[in-house]
């Protein structure tokens, strides 16, 4: 069984026998009667052909992967025992050609290389090569079939005789456009994943093949054999590799090819400069370094094998063989030392070359930035005279805008009222701050006097010259008289509460002390009340003076609310003074 038969068997496993039979039957009549079914059959065959090509079994074991070589008896290669030969293969070829999934290989190779740089071309240029095929779908059925027969070697039966004679396909080579683009995309992605410097953009044909490692679906099925490189990477033959390089350089403009030197872009959006003469030498050094690395690995493996052989011969008491193995190990170690030295030296040279190439790129960037900045600074908009004129014009415009804004707000009565309210609120807030400041100063002045009076003893209070009613201020006379009357009432009540019996001398002395303490407390309360009254008088005088100053301003509407606010603020202080006086009594 051929490799293609093994592949088809693996692909038919998920399908039922009826589905396989439907795909292998002649379905050309359903092109107009059932277009959806026809398109489904063609799409299934297109996927099958691409999978066979990627697995390396489309053209035989290890054949080409980007070209379908259609033979004279192509149906026989796709024959299956359960379903026989595919009856609609020619119809599939016609549809794939019309949809540009396939492209005749001579037509693709006949296009000349662009004379300009590769970057001037675009991926869309590949469609221009198929312009003749694009016009094919617009031709009548008979003309289209005749064109295919003459140009591509296809012979199709007419629609009327399709049921009587099956279609026949002649040989020809067709490019798998979708596979070509898939390989190109994979190669570019693998390159940009490893590209870190200008030297990493250079490849030989052998190192370029390593970029194909890990291509999805590129492993051939069991029994196919061939077509794979080391590590599972795809190995294209020389013809397919040339097609891929042609597509990258001519159609996509992302590669430069010169003999054995391949150069790819440094970044996905960068252009590819031409290949310099010294870059071929650098590439040769890189290849030599790679070979040295491979030789070092091979020598290390051979040394380990010699050591193991000497150990086995020694265990088997084969002294001569053991000595020969040790001598061979010694020679290999000597060669390894020389290879390691050469590898280190060549690696250092490559590092210096890479550093120099990076320095060149940096200096080019510096030169480009300098010229760009100089061209920007030379613009007429950045000249000093132009900047000064622009600044002056901007200042004038801002001043005009401010005048217009003030004029507009002056015509708005609502805005004037809001401004007046804002002024009134500011004045009221300033008044409240002054009142709080006066209250705090009054309390600070009264606290030392109260503490001093409370610290005075009974003897100092007795020696103090009493203040006569004539010497007291008029606003202190009433509180002191009330305090004296309170003391007299307290003395009379204490006298009535005394026992009828004549008190002893000690009791009389104790009563006298109690009376003195009560009189002292009354005098202290009277002094505190007098201090509070004096502070209130001073605060009231300050408020009156402040109100007089406010009357001098043209704010008649704001004075009345402030006066009411002042009266309201006086009421809590009067109530507070009465409570303190009652508590003192």
Report on this structure.
This is Snf7-domain-containing protein. Residues 575-585 have a biased composition (Basic and acidic residues). Keywords: Coiled coil. The structure is a single chain. With 585 residues, the chain is mainly alpha-helical. The protein folds into four domains: 3-263, no CATH class; 277-378; 384-410; 541-550 and 560-585. It has 21 helices and eight strands. The strands form three sheets. A three-stranded antiparallel sheet has the order 1-5-2. Strands 6-8-7 form a three-stranded antiparallel sheet, sandwiched between helices. Helix 11 (177-194) packs across helix 13 (238-252), helix 17 packs antiparallel against helix 20 and helix 20 (505-551) runs antiparallel to helix 21 (556-584). It is elongated, with a radius of gyration of 56 Å. The N and C termini lie far apart (127 Å).
Short description:
Keywords: Coiled coil. The protein has 585 residues and is mostly helical.
Keywords:
68% helix; 585 residues; 4 domains; 3-stranded antiparallel β-sheet; mainly alpha; 8 strands; elongated
Helix/strand layout:
Blueprint: H1 3-12, H2 17-24, H3 30-33, H4 35-55, E1 67-70, H5 74-77, H6 89-98, E2 102-104, H7 105-109, H8 125-128, H9 131-136, H10 141-152, E3 154-155, E4 168-169, E5 172-176, H11 177-194, E6 202-203, H12 205-209, H13 238-252, E7 256-258, E8 261-263, H14 277-315, H15 319-377, H16 384-410, H17 413-455, H18 458-463, H19 474-497, H20 505-551, H21 556-584
Antiparallel strand pairs: 1-5, 2-5, 3-4, 6-8, 7-8
Helix pairs in contact: 4-6, 11-13, 14-15, 17-20, 19-20, 20-21
């Amino acid at each position: 069984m051929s490799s293609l038969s093994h592949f088809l068997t693996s692909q038919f496993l998920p399908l039922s026998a009826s589905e396989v039979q439907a795909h292998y039957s002649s379905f050309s009549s359903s092109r107009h009667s059932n277009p959806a079914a026809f398109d489904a059959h063609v799409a299934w065959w297109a996927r099958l052909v691409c999978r066979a090509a990627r697995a390396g079994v489309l053209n035989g074991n290890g054949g080409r992967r980007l070209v379908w070589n259609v033979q004279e008896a192509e149906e026989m290669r796709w024959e299956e025992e359960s379903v026989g030969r595919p009856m609609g293969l020619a119809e599939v070829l016609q549809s794939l050609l019309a949809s540009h999934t396939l492209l005749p290989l001579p037509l693709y190779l006949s296009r000349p290389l662009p004379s300009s740089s590769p970057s001037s071309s675009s991926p869309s240029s590949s469609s221009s090569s198929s312009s003749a095929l694009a016009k094919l779908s617009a031709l009548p059925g008979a003309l289209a079939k005749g064109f295919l027969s003459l140009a591509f070697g296809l012979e199709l039966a007419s629609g009327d005789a399709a049921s009587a004679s099956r279609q026949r396909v002649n040989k020809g080579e067709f490019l798998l456009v979708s596979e070509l683009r898939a390989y190109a995309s994979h190669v570019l992605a693998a390159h940009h994943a490893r590209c870190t410097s200008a030297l990493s953009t250079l490849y030989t044909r052998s190192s370029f093949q390593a970029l194909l490692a890990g291509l999805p679906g590129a492993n051939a099925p069991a029994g196919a054999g061939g077509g794979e490189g080391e590590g599972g990477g795809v190995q294209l033959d020389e013809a397919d590799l040339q097609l891929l390089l042609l597509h990258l350089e001519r159609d996509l403009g992302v590669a430069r090819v010169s003999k054995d030197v391949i150069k790819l872009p440094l970044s996905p959006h960068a252009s590819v400069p031409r290949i310099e003469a010294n870059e071929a030498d650098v590439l040769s050094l890189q290849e030599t370094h790679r070979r040295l690395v491979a030789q070092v690995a091979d020598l290390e493996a051979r040394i380990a094998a010699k050591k193991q052989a000497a150990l086995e011969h020694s265990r088997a008491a084969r002294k001569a063989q053991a000595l020969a193995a040790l001598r061979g190990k010694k020679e290999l170690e000597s060669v390894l030392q020389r290879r390691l030295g050469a590898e280190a030296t060549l690696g250092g040279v490559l590092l210096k070359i890479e550093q120099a190439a990076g320095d060149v790129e940096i200096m080019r960037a510096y030169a480009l930035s300098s010229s760009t900045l100089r061209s920007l600074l030379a613009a007429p908009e950045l000249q000093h005279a132009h900047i000064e004129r622009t600044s002056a014009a901007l200042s004038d415009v801002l001043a005009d805008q401010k005048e217009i804004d003030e004029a507009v707000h002056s015509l708005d009565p609502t805005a004037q009222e809001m401004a007046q309210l804002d002024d009134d609120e500011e004045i009221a807030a300033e008044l409240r701050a002054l009142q709080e400041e006066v209250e705090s100063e009054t309390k600070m002045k009264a606290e030392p006097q109260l503490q001093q009076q409370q610290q005075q003893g009974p003897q100092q209070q007795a020696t103090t010259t009493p203040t006569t009613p004539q010497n007291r201020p008029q606003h202190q006379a009433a509180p002191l008289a009330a305090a004296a009357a309170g003391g007299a009432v307290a003395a009379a009540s204490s006298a009535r509460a005394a026992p009828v019996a004549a008190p002893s001398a000690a009791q009389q002395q104790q009563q006298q002390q109690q009376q003195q303490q009560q009189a002292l407390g009354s005098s202290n309360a009277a002094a505190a009340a007098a201090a509070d009254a004096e502070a209130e008088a001073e605060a009231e005088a300050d408020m009156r003076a402040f109100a007089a100053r406010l009357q001098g301003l043209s704010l008649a509407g704001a004075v009345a609310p402030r006066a009411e606010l002042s009266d309201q603020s006086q009421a809590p202080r009067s109530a507070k003074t009465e409570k303190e006086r009652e508590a003192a009594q």
